[in-house]
Amino acid sequence: MTLIQAIADARTWARATTSSHTDTQVMAAISDGQREFAKEAFGLTKEGYLDIEPTFDTRTFFAIRVTITGGANAMVATDVTLTGTDRDNATGTQVATDLQVTLRAAGAATSTVTWSTTEWVFTIDSLDGTAIVIAAPSAIIYADATEMLFGSAGGSSIGTDDVTTYVGDIPQDCTVEASLPSDYRTMAGPVEWNGKPLRLATWNLFASPESSSTEPSHYGLLGTKMRLWPSPSRQGICHFWYEYMPVEYASGYQQLAITGRFLGTATGLAATTPYYFKVAIDGAAVVEFTITTATDVTYDGVIDLMNTASIGCSWSLVGGKLRCTSDTLAGSSAIALAAGTTGTNLFATLTGWTAFETAVAATGTADITIPAPYEKGPVYYAAHVLAEQIQDYDVSDRMFSQFKRHVHDYTITKSNDSPKMSRGITSPPIPRVIV
């Protein structure tokens, strides 16, 4: 069910009108209904898949010892740090970029370091040398990072037509980590790797894996991150079921960095004067609008004029700030404000104006996120709220009963559907009669 259809249904079932409740108000009620549905159903459940990749924690005292024989980048055995900036959960590409900078600074001025996103290995290219040797750093102030970059088996120097490279193995001490879905709340069943269940382990097991394998046996969770042990040396199908909380619906908007305004506050605009402003709505081209002020140049009067002139967006005061909101409900709605150029820029003329605040993206999809056939549950909840607000209590009670019925049906189905999804209500055991 689309959000637009849900809004129309909620308003119809509540016997409400567009005058009593705007689309934005109904959308907020549906958003509350989805979250209430999730709470009463002991969480909503769906499946997910994770795309894993190696990540690295690097520090300015992590180093390797590099020797390059022959060629323009010849370099005697030299300790080379991995990075000039401490990094957490850095990608292989970032580590390669950092190491190339420090390697060139150490003397191999045109050498290159690359990371393969398909093979998960680092390669150092001397361009025209005859040999490359990688070893542990000799200075006691450095930590040995050879295994972290090149694996416990190290790597190999490969020469072809006077071009020598050093190709590592799967990094030994990197952390294979993946971000869980943005709506993740908690696991609702086992985590599987290529169809085999993984065991949950404490997070300290994953702080420094120190081993790799094609098949991990354990997983760890910290916040919205998942790590695997041993670190898999290739991609696999990481499949799981999880409970999620629906994201609240909100349309994209942008505000002016002016605070403490009320509808009766003077704007600073002159009476009977034209002003111009530009808005890009939902990623479309910038459109310039114009208003001509009347004698009322308070925010109340000016906002009315701006709303009349604008198409596809709405202006309002929220928390004392002037806000422009896309009329598109949630989904991909967005606002980008700009100065008017045909005539006097409205924004710059407002008293106290300094800048635009960073635009806020829309949240929520253009559809109801409760699984079918229970998606009407949050709509019934919204209708219950609307009917209560217009004091139609009989309708409000009926709508709430429908909401509760959908929650109950979903919870029973979830509990009985699959052992991977079992949460909440469970069927009582059948009593045994001994005779």
Topology readout:
Elements: H1 3-13, H2 23-40, E1 44-50, E2 53-58, E3 62-69, E4 75-81, E5 87-91, H3 92-106, E6 112-115, E7 122-125, E8 131-135, E9 143-144, H4 146-150, E10 155-160, E11 163-168, E12 175-179, E13 184-193, E14 196-200, E15 212-213, E16 218-222, E17 225-229, E18 231-232, E19 238-244, E20 253-255, E21 274-281, E22 286-292, H5 299-309, E23 313-318, E24 321-326, E25 335-339, H6 346-349, H7 377-389, H8 393-417
Parallel strand pairs: 3-9, 14-16, 15-18
Antiparallel strand pairs: 1-19, 2-5, 2-12, 3-4, 3-8, 6-7, 7-11, 10-11, 12-17, 13-14, 13-19, 16-17, 20-24, 21-22, 21-25, 23-24
Helix pairs in contact: 1-2, 1-7, 2-7, 7-8
**What do the pLDDT scores average to?**
88
Give the termini separation: 54 Å
Main sheet: strands, sense, barrel: 9 strands, mixed
The number of strands is 25
Quickly list its features:
single chain; nine-stranded mixed β-sheet; 31% strand; flat; alpha+beta; disordered C terminus; 4 domains; 435 residues; four-stranded mixed β-sheet
Protein described:
The chain is α+β, with helices and mostly antiparallel strands. The protein contains eight helices and 25 strands. The chain has helices spanning 3-13, 23-40, 92-106, 146-150, 299-309, 346-349, 377-389, 393-417; strands at 44-50, 53-58, 62-69, 75-81, 87-91, 112-115, 122-125, 131-135, 143-144, 155-160, 163-168, 175-179, 184-193, 196-200, 212-213, 218-222, 225-229, 231-232, 238-244, 253-255, 274-281, 286-292, 313-318, 321-326, 335-339. A nine-stranded mixed β-sheet has the order 1-19-13-14-16-17-12-2-5. Strands 3, 4, 8 and 9 form a four-stranded mixed β-sheet that branches. The chain has a four-stranded antiparallel β-sheet with strand order 6-7-11-10. Strand 21 (274-281) and strand 22 (286-292) form a beta hairpin. Helix 1 crosses helix 2 (23-40) and helix 7 runs antiparallel to helix 8 (393-417). The radius of gyration is 30 Å and the shape is flat.
